[in-house]
Amino acid sequence: MVLLSRAMGALAALLMLPGCLVTPGTFTSTLDIRADRSFAFAYKGEILASDMDKALGSGGEDDPLEGVAPPEGKDSAYSQAMLQNIAQGQSKAPAEPAFDKGSDDAAQMQAMAAALTKEKGFRSVQYLGDHKFAIDYAISGRLDHAFLFPFNIDAQIVLPFVAVEMRGTDRIRVKAPGFANGFDKSQGPAGMGGGGDDAAKALNGTFTLTTDAEIVSQNQEDGATSVPEGKRIVWTVTPLTSDAPAATLRMKP
Predict the structure, then answer these.
(1) Any residues with CB less than 8 A from the CB of 154 and at least 6 apart, and which?
(2) 184-209 residue pLDDT tens
């Protein structure tokens, strides 16, 4: 109970940090999930970054997350990942953020790139200027906990592109909210205000899910195709994409 209390306190503190809103540009992303819960994920392409204060329409004086409720429930992938990180010893009080609003803009972006390069999976991070990065990310492992991309405390990245959640004892749910423009563009990404149009226009890529697990549900109208690895679903993502790619899989017992 003490550990849980401390974890929830640290989670609440981290949610209050000013963040960096990132959105995809041109990209190719793949996710392979095996019925034994092994997985491999990759993202190669652009991400666009903006100050959360600007995205929220804040002048920098007020709390940029005021009125924005964090994800709720024990099944929230965000909450699960945060609690897992904290339980693994990352529950120290938040340090002074590397993404410093008072510093030079280019220096902020370079600091963000430096923070990302320290995280496992980022094979290369290059700042291209104008708040645009070229990313090469790949990671593999076992899905016995939630998985988010991108997620980095030092770079203060929030609003992941892809989330994988454990559902009950035998199901895994995949959703890619970052690979869609399913929001009111006048309100910005996820309805959080300002600057959403540029991000929406830049969205251009493909997200491919391959699996040998049973596909319980998915929202790609062309459905899954058979491949040597099992089944494959490909979502083409454009500025007109309104529904986030999503699928639910049943794992082996």
Answers:
(1) 97, 98, 115, 118
(2) 433 444 433 334 567 778 899 999 99
Chain CA centroid to CA 197, Å: 19
Residue bearing tokens 């459905």 = 223
Q: Which residue has the higher pLDDT, 69 or 178?
A: 178
pTM value is 0.70
Cβ–Cβ < 8 Å for 13, 153: no
CA pair distance 15, 68, nearest whole angstrom: 10
CA distance 110 to 126: 9
Confidence check: pLDDT of 84 > 70 = no
Question: Which residues are CB-neighbours of 178 under 8 A, at least 6 positions away?
Answer: 23, 24, 159, 160, 161, 162, 244
- Whether 179 and 245 have beta carbons less than 8 Å apart is answered as yes
More confident residue, 243 or 15: 243
Amino acid letter for position 179: F
pLDDT at 6 over 60: no
Distances (CA, A) of 220 to 5, 52, 77, 214, 215: 41, 31, 22, 16, 12
